[in-house]
């Protein structure tokens, strides 16, 4: 599913009207009907519904929604919250159809007049403003939204909640707080931003008849479990351990062995054929007792950095993961620089490795093979040299610009994880839940990532699938056997068996 900016959505509408010859009024009719039918899953026949209609296409959609619901026998009051002169074009045409059909529109005068009606409503549908909004709302929208957000009624929005910007860069705004939003044609960027995501509530996307072959495809896509099933690697019947990748994992310490244990177990559970774990001698007994299937390389701390077999043999592996439990000792950058220079396959950098990577970023431009960085917002803000607040305003832009500048692949972890390729393609994963907000979850994801990268032909598919596998495993566990409170990273590792069994069955069918 594509993800669009406001401008890209405007361009899609223009392609439908100008290139495909779809009349704008017909497109609005299609959109309004699709939204109304989607919203009906949340509206009961006995509910009293109020639809708030503003200017522009959003308001025009509102007239179609109101007419559709009334035609189906629902109790609907339609309130126009802007003067008549603000209703123009296709929206005005649909208002005329609405009135000619025998239905009434109530004109908004003051909030005091509207308030008694709102208090009696079971459902309030917001069709006031669409994708062109930026900054603070003007009256009467600001007062209406302030009142409606305090109601006990079920609140629904058309395309995006009034007041929510469609794109990035805005952090201060007033907005309708929807319980459910029916999105038209494609989700907008703001669905996935920390500051605007809560205003959407639950959401669904409806198709409205746009001419798909004529639409310019954005380099942004929502990636889910169905996409994983289509791209999941199939193991050949005659495959052997060498067929599924030979990986090296570097990290851990005497005081932090658990991080590399979880990453190693996750990698092996994800089908990696051969795994070597490079860690300090003191940690090997603790790690090996939990990871019997791996081989081990002893590393030594010399002048504050890690040396030994790990560096000497790194080039003989198909891919390397570094960073979990590595520590931030002075001089450890030397290890990372050596890996950047010597690893012939994908190099995945996580955790402490990301903190140490900042001074080495220019050297990543010279790598001939992929570098994958897996930061959470704090780590990425450090790498990009911006505040976390600034980063979260525009995570798509920062991720894309950073990936293009340094030639890296980036997984920006969060409730909406943004996966960016070195050429600027982006995918978003929204799986997972608050049960993953615990230490060790990132280590598990990195282990899955190493396993998938070394078994999947497409690097972008491998990164995207790893994130969804991680998140969906947590979702299934909290639905079936765990709660978000008690879920541990080690539970997710054990839950991978169920996930991969499901995916393997799908790929064979």
Automatic annotation (TrEMBL):
Q: Which residues form a coiled coil?
A: none
EC numbers, comma separated = 4.2.1.136, 5.1.99.6
Which SUPFAM superfamilies does this UniProt record tie to the protein?
A: Ribokinase-like, YjeF N-terminal domain-like
Give UniProt keywords alphabetically: ATP-binding, Isomerase, Lyase, Metal-binding, Multifunctional enzyme, NAD, NADP, Nucleotide-binding, Potassium
Catalysed reaction equations from the record: (6S)-NADHX + ADP = AMP + phosphate + NADH + H(+); (6R)-NADPHX = (6S)-NADPHX; (6S)-NADPHX + ADP = AMP + phosphate + NADPH + H(+); (6R)-NADHX = (6S)-NADHX
Where do the TM regions start and end?
Answer: none
Tell me which residues make up the YjeF C-terminal domain: 224-503
Provide the GO MF annotations for this entry: ADP-dependent NAD(P)H-hydrate dehydratase activity; ATP binding; metal ion binding; NAD(P)HX epimerase activity
User: What GO biological process term is on the record, naming one?
Assistant: nicotinamide nucleotide metabolic process
Q: Which residues are listed for (6S)-NADPHX binding in this entry?
A: 57-61, 130-136, 141, 159, 325, 376, 443
Q: Which HAMAP family match?
A: NADHX_dehydratase, NADHX_epimerase
Explain the purpose of this protein.
Bifunctional enzyme that catalyzes the epimerization of the S- and R-forms of NAD(P)HX and the dehydration of the S-form of NAD(P)HX at the expense of ADP, which is converted to AMP. This allows the repair of both epimers of NAD(P)HX, a damaged form of NAD(P)H that is a result of enzymatic or heat-dependent hydration. Catalyzes the dehydration of the S-form of NAD(P)HX at the expense of ADP, which is converted to AMP. Together with NAD(P)HX epimerase, which catalyzes the epimerization of the S- and R-forms, the enzyme allows the repair of both epimers of NAD(P)HX, a damaged form of NAD(P)H that is a result of enzymatic or heat-dependent hydration.
Q: Which NCBIfam families match?
A: yjeF_cterm, yjeF_nterm
Quaternary state and interactors: Homotetramer.
- Describe the family membership recorded for this protein in Swiss-Prot or TrEMBL: In the N-terminal section; belongs to the NnrE/AIBP family.
Stated name of the protein? Bifunctional NAD(P)H-hydrate repair enzyme
- Its gene name is nnrE
């Amino acid at each position: 599913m594509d993800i669009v900016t406001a401008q890209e959505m405007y361009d899609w509408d223009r392609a439908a009207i100008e290139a495909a010859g779809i009349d704008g009024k017909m497109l609005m009719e299609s959109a309004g009907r699709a939204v109304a039918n989607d919203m009906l899953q949340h509206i009961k026949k006995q509910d009293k519904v109020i639809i708030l209609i503003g200017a522009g296409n959003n308001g025009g959609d509102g007239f179609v929604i109101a007419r559709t619901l009334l035609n189906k026998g629902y109790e609907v009051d339609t309130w126009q919250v802007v003067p008549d002169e603000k209703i123009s074009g296709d929206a005005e045409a649909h208002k005329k159809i609405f009135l000619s059909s025998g239905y009434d529109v109530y004109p908004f005068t003051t909030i005091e007049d509207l308030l008694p009606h709102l208090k009696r409503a079971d459902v309030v549908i917001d069709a006031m403003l669409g994708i062109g909004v930026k900054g603070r709302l003007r009256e009467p929208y600001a007062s209406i939204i302030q009142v409606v957000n305090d109601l006990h009624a079920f609140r629904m929005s058309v395309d995006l909640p009034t007041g929510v910007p469609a794109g990035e860069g805005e952090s201060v705004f007033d907005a309708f707080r929807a319980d459910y939003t029916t999105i038209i044609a494609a989700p907008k960027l703001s669905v996935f931003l920390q500051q605007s995501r809560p205003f959407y509530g639950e959401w669904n996307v409806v198709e409205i008849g746009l001419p798909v072959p004529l639409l310019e495809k954005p380099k942004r896509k929502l990636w889910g479990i169905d996409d994983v099933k289509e791209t999941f690697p199939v193991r050949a019947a005659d495959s052997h351990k060498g067929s599924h990748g030979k990986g090296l994992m570097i990290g851990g310490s005497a005081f932090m062995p658990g991080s590399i244990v979880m990453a190693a177990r996750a990698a092996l559970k994800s089908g990696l054929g051969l795994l070597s774990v490079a860690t300090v001698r003191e940690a090997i007994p603790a790690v090996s007792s939990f990871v019997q299937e791996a081989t081990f390389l002893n590393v030594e701390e010399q002048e504050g950095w890690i040396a030994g077999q790990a560096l000497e043999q790194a080039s003989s592996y198909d891919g390397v993961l570094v960073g979990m439990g590595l520590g931030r000792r002075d001089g450890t950058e030397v290890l990372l620089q050596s890996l950047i220079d010597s690893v012939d396959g994908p190099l995945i950098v996580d955790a402490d490795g990301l903190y140490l990577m900042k001074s080495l970023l220019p050297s990543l431009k010279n790598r001939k093979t992929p570098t994958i960085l897996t930061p959470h917002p704090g780590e990425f803000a450090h790498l990009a040299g911006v505040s976390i607040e600034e980063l979260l305003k525009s995570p798509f832009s920062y991720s894309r610009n950073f990936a293009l500048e340094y030639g890296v692949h980036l997984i920006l972890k969060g409730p909406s994880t943004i996966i960016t390729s070195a050429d600027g393609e982006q995918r978003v994963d929204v799986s997972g839940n608050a049960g993953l907000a615990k230490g060790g979850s990132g280590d598990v994801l990195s282990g899955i990532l190493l396993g998938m990268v070394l078994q999947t032909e497409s690097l972008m598919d491998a990164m995207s699938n790893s994130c969804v596998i991680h998140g969906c495993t947590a979702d299934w566990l909290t639905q079936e056997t765990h709660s978000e409170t008690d879920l541990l990273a080690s539970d997710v590792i054990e839950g991978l068996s169920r996930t991969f069994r499901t995916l393997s069955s799908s790929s064979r069918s």
